Amino acid sequence: MNLTLPPAATFSDARLDLSPHGEADTEWWYCQGSLEGASTGRRNLVLLLFRRRARSGARKDGWFLLISLTDPTAGTQHVTSLATEEMAEAFGREALADLLKGGVPRAMAEAYVDEVLSCGPAAPVVVSSAGVEASPTSLDHRFDHFSLRQAGRDRIDVAFDLPGDGRRCRFELRPTTKWFRDSRIGAEGSVGLMEYASCPRVELAGDVGGEPVSGRVWFDHQWGGHGWFEPHEENGHMLGWAWLAINLDDGNDLLVSVAIDMTTREIGKAGAVWFEKGAEPRLIETVGGGELRRWRSDRTHASFPVSWRIVIPELDADIVFDPVQDNCEIPIYGIPTAVWEGAGTIGGTVRGHPASGRAHLELYGYAFPTDFDRFRDEWIDRIDALIAGFLPRRLDDAWLRAAAGAPRGRYDADALTQLVSAPAWTLLERGGKHWRSVFGILMLSALGSPVEPYEELVTVIPELLHAGSLMIDDIEDRSALRRGGPAVHTIFGEAATINAGNALYFLPLLTVARNPHLDIAQREAIYRISFDLFVRAHVGQAQDLDAERWIGDAAILDDLDGRLEVSLQTYALKTAAPIRSLTGVLCMIASADERTTEICMRYAETAGIAYQIVDDTNNFTGGEKWGKETGEDIRERRLTYVVLRALKALPAAERDRLWAILSADPATFTPDMQAEACRLVERSGVIERCREEARTMIHEAWTELSGVLPPSQSKLLLRLLVEQILEGAN
Hints:
Farnesyl Diphosphate Synthase; ten-stranded antiparallel β-sheet; disordered N terminus
């Protein structure tokens, strides 16, 4: 993908002509800079009016408007993000196809589109019923409270209501440097050509609510094809970019663009334009450097590279961009979800001399829903780091004192490492889905609470509880494998594994005692919820163990409906109880009301049950991601929900044969019998029916949950996470 100016580009000192190009598929007018007033203070400003040409049978073009105002002193941001109804209608017609082309699984793509269309966009994005009044021949456009007009050869008028306090803004923009125009941005056969007109220095003068203000902005006008905003025709990859506009203090200017394949995160090409005072703009094709630091958004959970190093050998330039503030994300309507638009400073050298100045960075493509797997994987890495910070692989005296108190004698750190930490990390190092922790992060955010103060609690508790339960379960179920390796008890012995597994039930509660953001009442509430969880989980495990008592008793075949009900309750008590209890904790932290708490906990419980049903189907479908032996449930004579469904669905002769295999003496059980039983379960047709049953129950629960959670990116990602679980993804 080529986003830079190709060698054939030509520049001209074009007169100011910002007239619209109605034949173009996409077009936008954009400016960024700063303004200052006596009481308003200094503010950084971004304005964007974007047009999308009508297609697919639509009669009107779609538009959206972005206005961002940041206060660099207070570190605050206020945003206006408006989309026309035509833009929303275009999303409804085309988003599903674009997501599928971009590699999003159908179930997740359908859920994404349904969520946006049925619940609306996340705040502060608004779909406006106000139409756009746009002249077809000159720049004279009005959208809601915003107006943009070219007033002669040397002036642009803009007016709008200030985000945050609503004061009326009226500005005149007057270019003070040459305009340039290029008609060959992009490349044929890739993302399509664009035309580009730009002026690096435009003086701003006017008023904010009657108070005089002045400042300077960089103004762009761009138009052309729609390939920049859709999956690539050949490989389905999405295009993103980093665009850096620099006004140096010595009066020179620099524009740097970096094209990025957002599917692979590989840089396609980087280029620059050098605007030297008194000279024609110069194309530079070789640009090096890269990102230096990232910032993660609490709102969209996207990770943006907000600090960059730029190296340009042709200018002997080595400069660094640092943002004035990190939180400069602007939510927008549609698949892109959000862009990052932030002012910053430049430091370094150009042509061997110190260089400084003001700059603005735009980051597009970092919040695509096609990045869901990357988002999940980044959180898994973060979760693993939090676990490692809480439970070191090697325990020392300081950790033991903090966890268990001052000793009367001395701790044997080596022995405790071998008997507590080593068994735990043997399992933890094999990875895992971590879906419970990611579920908790998204649920807490969807409830409107910040995640960072509680992220250790939200991640360490469910992950260590789950690891401990797996270690104990494998002993009770006589499992030989777990997550692609030997079960922990086959390495450390049953006694050590039982002790380590039990320790993992209680150690995570230290995160509650140590969290400075929780008051005493909240801690006590979490302890009560935890005790309730322990009771539920052990009752569920008892019911699970009791199922073995029925093996060999043909009377069970006369009460399969009853056993299916018992199986579902076992899942609710055992598998679903941890995520249900965690959600109760999250609702308490977020101060959710009683009804919201009840609905959220019911949804979490349903998600846990649905997950276990899908997990049971995976026992028969195998595959590298399963990490356990295909048909292990048959060999271990487990009457799972899927097995019970198969017994109910099979014809009598095949049902009796499956029952005979399940009831066989373990001493005479053979791999051929296991394979035969797997074929019988597959032939019964229940695997897909069980998956569909899980989908139905979670979709019904989501409808209820959606009524109490406002639209947000966290809510949308929560739905995508559960859809991924239902697809049996690892």
